[in-house]
Write a structure and sequence with these properties.
Distance between the termini: 21 Å
Number of strands: 14
Low-confidence stretches: none
Order of helices and strands: EEEEEEEEEEEEEHE
Structural class: mainly beta
Radius of gyration: 15 Å
Mean pLDDT: 95
Shape: globular
Amino acid sequence: MLVILRHGEGRTGTLFVNNRPLPALIGAGGIRSDKSEGDQATPTGFLPFRQVFYRADRIVRPQTRLRIEALSPDDGWCDDPDHRDYNRHVSLPHEGRHERLWRDDHCYDLCVVLGWNDDPVIRNRGSAIFLHLPPESGVTEGCIALKEALLRELIASGATGIEVQAG
Protein backbone atom coordinates (compact mmCIF):
# COMPACT_ATOMS: atom_id res chain seq x y z
CA MET A 1 0.00 0.00 0.00
CA LEU A 2 1.35 3.41 -0.99
CA VAL A 3 0.89 6.22 1.59
CA ILE A 4 2.24 9.66 0.67
CA LEU A 5 1.99 12.95 2.56
CA ARG A 6 2.32 16.18 0.60
CA HIS A 7 2.36 19.70 2.00
CA GLY A 8 -0.84 21.62 1.36
CA GLU A 9 -1.34 25.21 2.41
CA GLY A 10 0.01 26.51 5.70
CA ARG A 11 -0.29 23.88 8.42
CA THR A 12 -2.13 21.31 6.36
CA GLY A 13 -1.14 18.39 4.24
CA THR A 14 -2.84 15.76 2.17
CA LEU A 15 -2.26 12.11 2.89
CA PHE A 16 -2.73 9.99 -0.21
CA VAL A 17 -3.61 6.38 0.58
CA ASN A 18 -3.65 4.46 -2.72
CA ASN A 19 -4.33 7.83 -4.41
CA ARG A 20 -7.29 8.58 -2.08
CA PRO A 21 -6.74 12.07 -0.60
CA LEU A 22 -7.22 12.51 3.16
CA PRO A 23 -6.84 15.77 5.09
CA ALA A 24 -3.96 15.86 7.56
CA LEU A 25 -2.28 18.36 9.86
CA ILE A 26 1.49 18.85 9.83
CA GLY A 27 4.01 20.75 11.92
CA ALA A 28 3.86 24.51 12.34
CA GLY A 29 7.32 24.61 10.69
CA GLY A 30 6.03 22.96 7.50
CA ILE A 31 7.77 19.98 5.90
CA ARG A 32 11.58 20.09 5.91
CA SER A 33 14.40 17.88 4.70
CA ASP A 34 16.76 19.43 7.29
CA LYS A 35 14.68 18.59 10.38
CA SER A 36 16.18 19.59 13.75
CA GLU A 37 15.04 19.47 17.36
CA GLY A 38 12.51 22.18 18.21
CA ASP A 39 11.90 23.49 14.66
CA GLN A 40 8.30 22.21 14.70
CA ALA A 41 8.76 20.80 11.19
CA THR A 42 7.55 17.48 9.84
CA PRO A 43 10.54 15.63 8.34
CA THR A 44 10.71 14.43 4.74
CA GLY A 45 11.47 10.84 3.82
CA PHE A 46 9.98 7.45 4.53
CA LEU A 47 8.68 7.27 8.11
CA PRO A 48 7.95 3.63 8.99
CA PHE A 49 5.29 2.75 11.55
CA ARG A 50 7.12 1.45 14.64
CA GLN A 51 4.33 0.83 17.16
CA VAL A 52 0.92 2.03 18.34
CA PHE A 53 0.02 3.52 21.72
CA TYR A 54 -3.56 4.08 22.81
CA ARG A 55 -5.52 5.24 25.86
CA ALA A 56 -7.50 2.16 26.92
CA ASP A 57 -9.43 4.29 29.41
CA ARG A 58 -10.75 6.49 26.57
CA ILE A 59 -10.92 4.51 23.33
CA VAL A 60 -11.43 0.97 22.08
CA ARG A 61 -8.26 -0.92 21.16
CA PRO A 62 -7.57 -0.33 17.45
CA GLN A 63 -7.26 -3.16 14.94
CA THR A 64 -3.73 -3.39 13.61
CA ARG A 65 -0.91 -5.83 12.90
CA LEU A 66 1.54 -3.36 14.40
CA ARG A 67 2.93 -3.77 17.90
CA ILE A 68 0.41 -2.13 20.22
CA GLU A 69 0.56 -1.00 23.84
CA ALA A 70 -1.92 0.67 26.17
CA LEU A 71 -0.53 3.88 27.65
CA SER A 72 -0.18 4.47 31.37
CA PRO A 73 0.39 7.69 33.33
CA ASP A 74 4.08 6.73 33.59
CA ASP A 75 4.74 6.79 29.84
CA GLY A 76 6.93 9.51 28.36
CA TRP A 77 9.23 10.27 25.45
CA CYS A 78 12.69 11.78 25.94
CA ASP A 79 13.27 14.88 23.81
CA ASP A 80 16.51 15.94 25.51
CA PRO A 81 19.32 15.81 22.91
CA ASP A 82 21.94 15.67 25.68
CA HIS A 83 20.42 12.61 27.37
CA ARG A 84 21.30 8.99 26.55
CA ASP A 85 17.55 8.24 26.15
CA TYR A 86 17.05 10.92 23.47
CA ASN A 87 14.18 10.04 21.12
CA ARG A 88 13.19 6.99 23.14
CA HIS A 89 10.13 5.82 25.05
CA VAL A 90 10.83 6.31 28.77
CA SER A 91 9.16 5.69 32.12
CA LEU A 92 8.31 8.69 34.25
CA PRO A 93 9.60 10.26 36.32
CA HIS A 94 12.64 10.77 34.07
CA GLU A 95 15.63 13.02 34.71
CA GLY A 96 15.96 14.20 31.10
CA ARG A 97 13.62 16.65 29.36
CA HIS A 98 10.64 14.68 28.15
CA GLU A 99 7.10 14.75 26.87
CA ARG A 100 4.30 13.06 28.81
CA LEU A 101 2.35 10.64 26.57
CA TRP A 102 -0.60 10.43 29.02
CA ARG A 103 -2.14 13.80 28.16
CA ASP A 104 -5.19 15.73 29.32
CA ASP A 105 -6.11 16.51 25.71
CA HIS A 106 -6.92 13.71 23.27
CA CYS A 107 -3.96 13.98 20.83
CA TYR A 108 -2.31 10.77 21.99
CA ASP A 109 -5.44 8.75 22.67
CA LEU A 110 -4.33 6.97 19.50
CA CYS A 111 -0.68 7.49 18.55
CA VAL A 112 1.68 5.77 16.12
CA VAL A 113 5.41 6.11 16.69
CA LEU A 114 7.03 7.00 13.37
CA GLY A 115 10.56 5.89 12.55
CA TRP A 116 12.40 9.19 12.51
CA ASN A 117 15.92 9.62 13.86
CA ASP A 118 15.83 6.29 15.63
CA ASP A 119 18.19 4.04 13.67
CA PRO A 120 20.66 5.44 14.61
CA VAL A 121 19.63 8.31 16.89
CA ILE A 122 21.50 11.52 15.97
CA ARG A 123 21.67 14.31 18.54
CA ASN A 124 19.46 17.33 17.69
CA ARG A 125 18.00 15.73 14.54
CA GLY A 126 14.47 15.71 16.03
CA SER A 127 12.46 13.49 18.32
CA ALA A 128 8.95 12.34 19.16
CA ILE A 129 7.61 12.28 15.58
CA PHE A 130 4.22 10.62 15.82
CA LEU A 131 1.06 10.08 13.80
CA HIS A 132 -1.69 11.12 16.22
CA LEU A 133 -5.11 12.74 16.61
CA PRO A 134 -5.58 16.44 15.75
CA PRO A 135 -4.76 18.96 18.48
CA GLU A 136 -7.21 21.75 19.26
CA SER A 137 -4.64 24.27 17.98
CA GLY A 138 -4.95 22.87 14.44
CA VAL A 139 -1.19 22.40 14.14
CA THR A 140 1.38 19.89 15.40
CA GLU A 141 4.92 20.38 16.67
CA GLY A 142 6.30 18.30 13.77
CA CYS A 143 4.01 15.29 13.86
CA ILE A 144 1.25 14.28 11.44
CA ALA A 145 -2.34 14.30 12.68
CA LEU A 146 -5.42 12.55 11.29
CA LYS A 147 -8.99 12.27 12.52
CA GLU A 148 -9.54 9.13 14.58
CA ALA A 149 -11.61 7.22 12.01
CA LEU A 150 -8.98 7.82 9.31
CA LEU A 151 -6.10 6.92 11.62
CA ARG A 152 -7.82 3.68 12.63
CA GLU A 153 -8.44 2.85 8.97
CA LEU A 154 -4.82 3.53 8.08
CA ILE A 155 -3.27 1.35 10.80
CA ALA A 156 -5.76 -1.46 10.08
CA SER A 157 -4.92 -1.36 6.35
CA GLY A 158 -1.53 -3.03 6.58
CA ALA A 159 0.35 0.14 5.57
CA THR A 160 3.90 0.14 6.90
CA GLY A 161 4.71 3.85 6.86
CA ILE A 162 4.32 7.25 5.21
CA GLU A 163 6.47 8.80 2.47
CA VAL A 164 6.60 12.51 3.37
CA GLN A 165 7.25 14.82 0.41
CA ALA A 166 7.96 18.55 0.59
CA GLY A 167 6.01 19.62 -2.47
